[in-house]
Amino acid sequence: MLAAAASVVLGTGLLLGFGPATASAESTSDDLADAVRATMLEQRGDTAREQFSTRSLAEPLVEPITTEDDAWAFGTTTIPAPSTAHAAPETALFVAEHGPQGWRVELDGTDGFVDLADAAPDDVVSDEEKELFAKNHEAAQDAPLADTGLGLPWQEGVAWWMGGGPHGNSGSSRPYSSIDFNGGNGQVLSAGPGRVYKSCVRGGSALVKVMHENGYSTTYYHMRRLTNLSNGSPVQTGTYLGLIGNELPCGGSSSGAHVHLSLLRGDSHISVDNMTIGGWTFHTVSRPYQGYATRGNVRVDRGERLTNYGGSDNSLPTGTVDSGEYSRVNLRTGPGLDHDIVDTVADGALVRIECTARGGDVDGVWGTTDLWNRLDTGNWISDGFVYTGTNDPVAPACD
Q1: Predicted local confidence at residue 262, as pLDDT
Q2: Long-range CB contacts (< 8 A, 24+ apart) of 302-305?
Q3: Does the predicted model carry a pTM greater than 0.70?
Q4: What residue numbers does the annotated binding site cover?
Q5: Which residues are annotated as a binding site for Zn(2+)?
Q6: Architecture of domain 159-307
Q7: CATH number 2.30.30 given to 318-387
Q8: pLDDT at 15
Q9: What PANTHER family does its record include (predicted)?
């Protein structure tokens, strides 16, 4: 229930009065929660109803991260998902300021959020967070690039299963912004650098969100054994977030341990169709959970494995070393066995390929080949020991 005092909409935020300045700390906290819930339902309620295919919504959760003197608050708010669908909750960061007319609340992804966060005391919203929010919001105003710059949420050079192809954050809902993955050691890692936030923290699980500077955010659901990093902590590509699981801290359903990865642009879910993540371009079809991913001439469908080739902070194509019966592969000064050995590289390592050339024949893991790859280190490796997903060159010819 909303407080009985009148409410006034200013900009994108909602001001909710709660009586005289002498109100108790408890009533102030209650009124803050009411104001945040009202703003969340007003701005994100229609989106949640459409995603969840329901007219009625559960009461939004309000979880402050930091507060100051009953005048400022920063935290998360979440609309739980129904248990009848494979769904993830609708969540947002909020910043709130109390003034003469009550609480002004702004949600992430808006001009008002950036402005109010910038005005907040540094011990409520840190300078580093203010900078991130501004950069994310500014970048989100531009048309999204097909290459997200993000990796897949596990170790580079390792293959996981795509258990559920592109689908909605709540199953069949549009856009198809989400993909389900499982495999390997089960460790879910951040798809890119940014800052981490947890919402709907329940039973050792939560919806985990990483906001990135490039206008994107990624969310991770169903995890267990979450990172102990506090809200707002910086993360890098590959920072541990949790383990795949069947956890449902804020509704939804799960039939097997996995991570439900979702892609957002600004404050909205965005289709992964034709988006490149982890070196793979994802494609949606008319039905949810189908779809597929491509890399060069290689296609991976639902139920098949794909290797994480990392983000595109380095634009060079990549491959994974497969040394067969050996533990390491020799690196040479040129494209042939008659060139000197200068180094070795371990089985399973991810290498970046600068260019390719034809040289001496090598009996590799997949047969005989004369294709050699010059790496970004300047050293050469036979393509017979590098998995790139194709027998054709993945990089231009060397000069």
Answers
A1: 96
A2: 302/162, 302/163, 302/164, 302/165, 303/161, 303/162, 303/163, 304/161, 304/162, 305/159, 305/160, 305/161, 305/162, 305/183
A3: yes
A4: 167, 180, 260
A5: 167, 180, 260
A6: Distorted Sandwich (2.70)
A7: yes
A8: 41
A9: CELL DIVISION PROTEIN YTFB, PEPTIDASE-RELATED
